[in-house]
Amino acid sequence: MAYTATIIIHLCRHGYKTQALLVLGNRLSSAIFNVRYASLRSVHFLTTNMILQRWGVEKAKELIARAIAENLNVKQLVGTGTASCPGGRTTFSIADLGCSVGLNTFIAVENIVDSIKLKLNPASLSLECIEFQVFFNDLVSNDFNLLFKSLPSERGYFAAGVPGGFHGRLFPSRSLHFVHSSYALHWLSEVPKEVVDPGSPFYNKGRIGYATAPVEVYEAFVAKFSEDMERFLNARGEEVVGGGLLAFIIPCLSDGLPPSQCSLPAIGDVLGSALMDMVHQGMITEDKVDSFNLPRYHTSPKELTAIIERSGNFSIEMMEVLDRPPMPEVIDKSICFRMMVRHFRATLEGLIREQFGDGLVDQVFERFSKKLEESSIFTDPKYKPGVEMFVLLKRKIA
Ligand SMILES: C[S@@+](CC[C@H](N)C(=O)[O-])C[C@H]1O[C@@H](n2cnc3c(N)ncnc32)[C@H](O)[C@@H]1O
């Protein structure tokens, strides 16, 4: 979803003809509903979000295929079977962490399976000797029913769901060969406690994010992300076999860019300002806003590299910025803002409902929409867009 946000920001900043957007949407939706995914009929998949997010998934597909071709020794990972499978069939285990409900997770895992098969073809290990097991992971609140109802009917793998937070252990030791995660690792396990504690010097009063907060608040988010990422890497370090791969896409800020100058974190301020208006109009209490912060953090390539190197379990094999598709011409701004709000609503509605109650959700997002239209984050050149990093790590052989 963060990728979607970045794409929409890009659309809003650089413009896009409504006509062109609709043509593109039609093309992509027909591509999505190809024979393989004909069973996917949920309205969810028709949202603009999914159409736009498809760009990122396609881009990452090429990189993952390359990563597997260049970095994965399948024979070494799963054994030395031959065309006659003398040792019996062997299992290649894949996990997608923060999979949501589809469609992107299906595209990603299918690409991983296809790329491995392609790699095996010229090798002596026969395809019939390998079975693929895919674990779909997300938080327990994820709609796993929808995920499983949407599973492609024709798939080359066995599917299982694994509920729970990915910052801790989810799988047995040395049981995974390939771990994938897209647009999920910028979500923190929780908001840093000190920023919502009125007694703390880091109390983030009147704001719900760190973009324009005092530096101490920002540092609390930095520390929480670093702690979460270390826990994530340590858990995967236990679960992934030596030589196994961990590939993820994470929305970032360019190195050296202050968060106050990037439209990704700045959007949180716009939502915060809509909430503060509701406080001034007596619709919600100030305490409710002060005790609410967005549990997300956008790292930078340099910061991420340092965390990975410190954790020590994985070597960095690839780290690339995903190219954005070229965005031509003039946009219809109202479409742009509607897309942006729809995207954020999909991501944040649950949190807003939990904090402010069901009755206020529509109000919050209507106000957010108006604030976005008034804001300068898409027009002021001071605000730079975020970048999407594709990162490929290899588990060191202990
Ligand atoms: C923006 S969606 C990305 C979905 C999908 N990977 C994609 O690329 O379209 C982020 C997903 O990460 C999940 N998520 C966030 N924090 C998580 C955690 N600690 N453990 C597992 N899943 C998490 C969310 O529930 C959500 O489904």
Automatic annotation (TrEMBL):
Keyword Transport among UniProt keywords: no
Higher taxonomy: Eukaryota, Viridiplantae, Streptophyta, Embryophyta, Tracheophyta
One Pfam match: Methyltransf_7
Keywords for the protein's UniProt record, in alphabetical order: Magnesium, Metal-binding, Methyltransferase, Transferase
Superkingdom of origin: Eukaryota
Family matches, as InterPro entries: MeTrfase_7, MeTrfase_capping, SAM-dependent_MTases_sf
GO molecular function terms noted in the UniProt entry: metal ion binding; methyltransferase activity
Protein name in UniProt: Loganic acid O-methyltransferase-like
GO biological process per UniProt: methylation
Family matches, as Gene3D superfamilies: Methyltransferase, alpha-helical capping domain, Vaccinia Virus protein VP39
